[in-house]
Design brief:
single chain; 269 residues; alpha/beta; TIM Barrel; 13 helices; 14% strand; disordered N terminus
Length: 269
Protein backbone atom coordinates (compact mmCIF):
# COMPACT_ATOMS: atom_id res chain seq x y z
CA UNK A 1 0.00 0.00 0.00
CA UNK A 2 1.30 3.44 -0.90
CA UNK A 3 2.08 5.56 2.11
CA UNK A 4 0.75 9.09 2.21
CA UNK A 5 3.32 11.85 2.26
CA UNK A 6 4.20 12.82 5.81
CA UNK A 7 2.77 16.05 7.10
CA UNK A 8 5.20 18.68 8.31
CA UNK A 9 4.33 21.93 10.05
CA UNK A 10 7.07 24.56 9.70
CA UNK A 11 6.30 27.28 12.20
CA UNK A 12 6.47 30.09 9.66
CA UNK A 13 3.97 28.24 7.45
CA UNK A 14 1.49 27.49 10.22
CA UNK A 15 1.58 31.04 11.55
CA UNK A 16 0.56 32.40 8.18
CA UNK A 17 -2.60 30.31 8.00
CA UNK A 18 -6.12 31.03 9.14
CA UNK A 19 -7.40 28.22 11.34
CA UNK A 20 -9.08 25.80 8.98
CA UNK A 21 -12.31 24.38 10.46
CA UNK A 22 -12.69 20.67 11.12
CA UNK A 23 -15.85 18.61 11.32
CA UNK A 24 -14.98 15.21 12.78
CA UNK A 25 -17.65 12.55 13.04
CA UNK A 26 -17.23 10.05 15.87
CA UNK A 27 -19.26 6.97 15.00
CA UNK A 28 -18.59 5.31 18.36
CA UNK A 29 -19.82 1.67 18.32
CA UNK A 30 -22.35 2.00 15.52
CA UNK A 31 -22.76 0.68 11.96
CA UNK A 32 -22.00 -2.57 10.20
CA UNK A 33 -19.47 -2.88 7.39
CA UNK A 34 -22.24 -2.43 4.81
CA UNK A 35 -23.49 0.66 6.63
CA UNK A 36 -19.99 2.13 6.70
CA UNK A 37 -19.43 1.55 3.00
CA UNK A 38 -22.82 3.00 2.09
CA UNK A 39 -21.96 6.10 4.10
CA UNK A 40 -18.60 6.72 2.48
CA UNK A 41 -20.00 6.21 -1.01
CA UNK A 42 -22.72 8.76 -0.21
CA UNK A 43 -20.43 11.50 1.11
CA UNK A 44 -17.12 10.98 -0.67
CA UNK A 45 -17.71 13.21 -3.69
CA UNK A 46 -19.92 15.65 -1.78
CA UNK A 47 -17.64 16.86 1.02
CA UNK A 48 -16.11 20.32 0.47
CA UNK A 49 -12.56 21.05 -0.59
CA UNK A 50 -10.19 19.95 2.19
CA UNK A 51 -8.36 23.27 1.88
CA UNK A 52 -11.54 24.99 3.10
CA UNK A 53 -12.77 22.51 5.72
CA UNK A 54 -11.36 19.22 6.97
CA UNK A 55 -13.98 16.48 6.91
CA UNK A 56 -13.09 13.51 9.10
CA UNK A 57 -14.81 10.25 9.99
CA UNK A 58 -13.56 8.45 13.12
CA UNK A 59 -14.85 4.92 12.76
CA UNK A 60 -14.57 1.67 14.70
CA UNK A 61 -11.16 0.12 14.08
CA UNK A 62 -12.63 -2.84 12.23
CA UNK A 63 -13.77 -0.54 9.38
CA UNK A 64 -10.64 1.56 9.02
CA UNK A 65 -9.03 -0.35 6.16
CA UNK A 66 -12.26 -0.39 4.13
CA UNK A 67 -12.78 3.34 4.60
CA UNK A 68 -9.20 4.42 3.95
CA UNK A 69 -9.20 2.45 0.69
CA UNK A 70 -12.27 4.36 -0.43
CA UNK A 71 -11.64 7.84 0.95
CA UNK A 72 -11.68 10.53 -1.69
CA UNK A 73 -9.46 13.55 -2.07
CA UNK A 74 -11.34 15.61 0.51
CA UNK A 75 -12.33 13.08 3.18
CA UNK A 76 -10.03 11.81 5.92
CA UNK A 77 -10.38 8.80 8.21
CA UNK A 78 -9.60 8.67 11.91
CA UNK A 79 -9.53 6.07 14.68
CA UNK A 80 -11.39 6.38 17.98
CA UNK A 81 -8.56 5.18 20.21
CA UNK A 82 -5.01 3.80 20.21
CA UNK A 83 -2.36 2.44 22.57
CA UNK A 84 0.68 4.52 23.42
CA UNK A 85 3.21 1.72 22.74
CA UNK A 86 4.36 0.94 19.21
CA UNK A 87 4.09 -2.78 19.94
CA UNK A 88 3.89 -5.21 22.83
CA UNK A 89 1.85 -7.80 24.71
CA UNK A 90 -1.31 -5.68 24.88
CA UNK A 91 -4.08 -8.03 23.76
CA UNK A 92 -6.83 -6.26 21.85
CA UNK A 93 -4.98 -2.97 21.48
CA UNK A 94 -3.95 -1.05 18.35
CA UNK A 95 -0.86 1.14 18.10
CA UNK A 96 -0.26 4.44 16.33
CA UNK A 97 2.23 2.62 14.14
CA UNK A 98 -0.47 0.17 13.05
CA UNK A 99 -2.92 3.00 12.33
CA UNK A 100 -0.36 4.86 10.26
CA UNK A 101 0.44 1.73 8.25
CA UNK A 102 -3.26 1.64 7.26
CA UNK A 103 -3.22 5.26 6.07
CA UNK A 104 -5.26 6.64 8.96
CA UNK A 105 -4.77 10.39 9.53
CA UNK A 106 -6.55 11.21 12.81
CA UNK A 107 -7.09 9.57 16.17
CA UNK A 108 -9.37 10.57 19.06
CA UNK A 109 -7.48 10.61 22.37
CA UNK A 110 -9.01 10.77 25.84
CA UNK A 111 -12.70 10.86 24.95
CA UNK A 112 -14.82 11.07 28.09
CA UNK A 113 -16.31 7.65 27.40
CA UNK A 114 -12.81 6.17 27.30
CA UNK A 115 -12.04 7.94 30.57
CA UNK A 116 -15.29 6.81 32.22
CA UNK A 117 -15.51 3.21 31.03
CA UNK A 118 -11.95 2.16 30.18
CA UNK A 119 -9.77 3.83 32.80
CA UNK A 120 -8.25 6.46 30.52
CA UNK A 121 -6.31 9.01 32.57
CA UNK A 122 -4.63 12.35 31.95
CA UNK A 123 -1.33 10.50 32.03
CA UNK A 124 -2.29 7.97 29.33
CA UNK A 125 -3.76 10.78 27.24
CA UNK A 126 -0.34 12.44 27.34
CA UNK A 127 1.44 9.24 26.30
CA UNK A 128 -1.03 8.67 23.47
CA UNK A 129 -0.72 12.26 22.24
CA UNK A 130 3.07 11.92 22.04
CA UNK A 131 2.85 8.51 20.35
CA UNK A 132 0.35 9.83 17.80
CA UNK A 133 2.39 12.84 16.68
CA UNK A 134 5.52 10.68 16.55
CA UNK A 135 3.74 8.57 13.91
CA UNK A 136 2.47 11.65 12.05
CA UNK A 137 -1.12 11.14 13.19
CA UNK A 138 -3.23 14.12 14.23
CA UNK A 139 -4.58 13.50 17.74
CA UNK A 140 -7.93 15.02 18.66
CA UNK A 141 -7.34 15.55 22.37
CA UNK A 142 -10.60 15.54 24.35
CA UNK A 143 -11.14 17.47 27.56
CA UNK A 144 -14.28 18.38 29.45
CA UNK A 145 -16.08 18.62 32.77
CA UNK A 146 -18.98 16.94 34.54
CA UNK A 147 -22.23 18.72 35.38
CA UNK A 148 -21.17 18.93 39.04
CA UNK A 149 -17.98 20.75 38.06
CA UNK A 150 -19.89 23.11 35.77
CA UNK A 151 -22.39 23.93 38.51
CA UNK A 152 -19.57 24.45 41.02
CA UNK A 153 -18.01 27.03 38.72
CA UNK A 154 -14.67 25.22 38.44
CA UNK A 155 -14.79 24.25 34.77
CA UNK A 156 -11.79 26.38 33.76
CA UNK A 157 -9.66 25.00 36.59
CA UNK A 158 -10.44 21.37 35.74
CA UNK A 159 -9.95 21.81 32.00
CA UNK A 160 -6.69 23.70 32.61
CA UNK A 161 -5.34 20.71 34.52
CA UNK A 162 -6.41 18.33 31.76
CA UNK A 163 -4.64 20.41 29.11
CA UNK A 164 -1.47 20.86 31.15
CA UNK A 165 -1.21 17.11 31.78
CA UNK A 166 -2.08 16.17 28.20
CA UNK A 167 0.66 18.43 26.80
CA UNK A 168 3.36 17.55 29.31
CA UNK A 169 6.74 17.25 27.53
CA UNK A 170 5.14 18.12 24.18
CA UNK A 171 7.18 20.56 22.11
CA UNK A 172 5.74 23.58 20.32
CA UNK A 173 6.34 21.87 16.99
CA UNK A 174 4.35 18.82 18.07
CA UNK A 175 1.64 20.90 19.76
CA UNK A 176 0.96 22.45 16.37
CA UNK A 177 0.15 18.99 15.05
CA UNK A 178 -2.68 18.50 17.53
CA UNK A 179 -6.36 19.40 17.74
CA UNK A 180 -8.26 19.92 20.99
CA UNK A 181 -11.91 19.00 21.46
CA UNK A 182 -13.81 20.55 24.36
CA UNK A 183 -16.62 18.15 25.25
CA UNK A 184 -18.63 18.93 28.37
CA UNK A 185 -19.55 15.49 29.69
CA UNK A 186 -23.03 16.68 30.64
CA UNK A 187 -23.77 17.50 26.99
CA UNK A 188 -22.52 14.29 25.31
CA UNK A 189 -25.41 12.23 23.97
CA UNK A 190 -27.90 13.97 26.23
CA UNK A 191 -29.46 16.33 23.74
CA UNK A 192 -28.36 19.19 25.99
CA UNK A 193 -25.84 21.50 24.38
CA UNK A 194 -23.69 24.13 26.01
CA UNK A 195 -24.80 27.54 24.78
CA UNK A 196 -22.52 28.94 22.09
CA UNK A 197 -21.31 31.51 24.62
CA UNK A 198 -20.55 28.85 27.27
CA UNK A 199 -18.67 26.73 24.77
CA UNK A 200 -16.73 29.69 23.39
CA UNK A 201 -15.79 31.00 26.83
CA UNK A 202 -14.36 27.63 27.85
CA UNK A 203 -12.51 27.27 24.56
CA UNK A 204 -11.01 30.74 25.05
CA UNK A 205 -9.88 29.58 28.49
CA UNK A 206 -8.30 26.49 26.89
CA UNK A 207 -6.49 28.67 24.38
CA UNK A 208 -5.13 30.81 27.21
CA UNK A 209 -3.69 27.70 28.84
CA UNK A 210 -2.04 26.77 25.55
CA UNK A 211 -0.72 30.33 25.29
CA UNK A 212 0.95 30.00 28.70
CA UNK A 213 2.51 26.73 27.59
CA UNK A 214 3.63 27.73 24.09
CA UNK A 215 3.10 31.43 23.52
CA UNK A 216 0.42 33.31 21.62
CA UNK A 217 1.67 32.58 18.10
CA UNK A 218 1.40 28.84 18.65
CA UNK A 219 -1.82 28.89 20.68
CA UNK A 220 -3.58 30.95 18.03
CA UNK A 221 -2.93 28.22 15.47
CA UNK A 222 -4.10 25.19 17.47
CA UNK A 223 -7.63 24.35 16.47
CA UNK A 224 -10.17 23.75 19.23
CA UNK A 225 -13.44 21.98 18.47
CA UNK A 226 -16.67 21.80 20.41
CA UNK A 227 -18.40 18.48 20.99
CA UNK A 228 -21.61 17.72 22.85
CA UNK A 229 -24.93 17.12 21.09
CA UNK A 230 -23.90 19.11 18.02
CA UNK A 231 -26.51 18.81 15.28
CA UNK A 232 -27.74 20.48 12.11
CA UNK A 233 -29.93 22.87 14.10
CA UNK A 234 -27.25 24.31 16.40
CA UNK A 235 -24.07 24.00 14.35
CA UNK A 236 -24.35 27.45 12.75
CA UNK A 237 -24.63 29.27 16.06
CA UNK A 238 -21.72 27.30 17.53
CA UNK A 239 -19.43 27.88 14.57
CA UNK A 240 -20.27 31.60 14.59
CA UNK A 241 -18.28 31.93 17.81
CA UNK A 242 -14.81 33.44 17.67
CA UNK A 243 -12.76 30.54 18.99
CA UNK A 244 -14.78 27.46 18.02
CA UNK A 245 -12.93 25.97 15.07
CA UNK A 246 -15.25 23.10 14.28
CA UNK A 247 -16.99 20.21 15.94
CA UNK A 248 -16.49 16.65 17.13
CA UNK A 249 -19.88 15.15 16.40
CA UNK A 250 -21.46 11.93 17.62
CA UNK A 251 -24.98 10.92 16.64
CA UNK A 252 -25.45 13.60 14.00
CA UNK A 253 -22.47 12.23 12.07
CA UNK A 254 -24.05 8.82 11.50
CA UNK A 255 -26.37 10.00 8.73
CA UNK A 256 -24.69 11.03 5.45
CA UNK A 257 -27.00 13.96 4.79
CA UNK A 258 -26.61 15.26 8.33
CA UNK A 259 -22.82 14.96 8.14
CA UNK A 260 -22.73 16.84 4.84
CA UNK A 261 -24.91 19.59 6.31
CA UNK A 262 -22.43 19.97 9.18
CA UNK A 263 -19.35 20.18 6.98
CA UNK A 264 -21.03 22.65 4.65
CA UNK A 265 -21.91 24.80 7.65
CA UNK A 266 -18.20 24.98 8.42
CA UNK A 267 -17.58 26.63 5.04
CA UNK A 268 -19.15 29.79 6.51
CA UNK A 269 -16.54 29.90 9.29
Amino acid sequence: MLKKQSKTYPLFWVKSMKRRPIIAGNWKMYKTKDDALAFIYAVNVEVPDKEKVESVICSPAIFLRDLVKREGENLRIGAQNMHYADEGAYTGEISALMLKSYGVDYVVVGHSERRAYFNETDETVNLKLIAAVNQDLTPIVCVGESLEIREAGTTDKVVKKQIEKAYLNVTSENALKTVVAYEPIWAIGTGVTATPEQANDTIIAIRKVLEKLYGKEVSEQIRILYGGSVNVKNVDSLLAMSDIDGALVGGASLDPNSFLTLVRAALKK
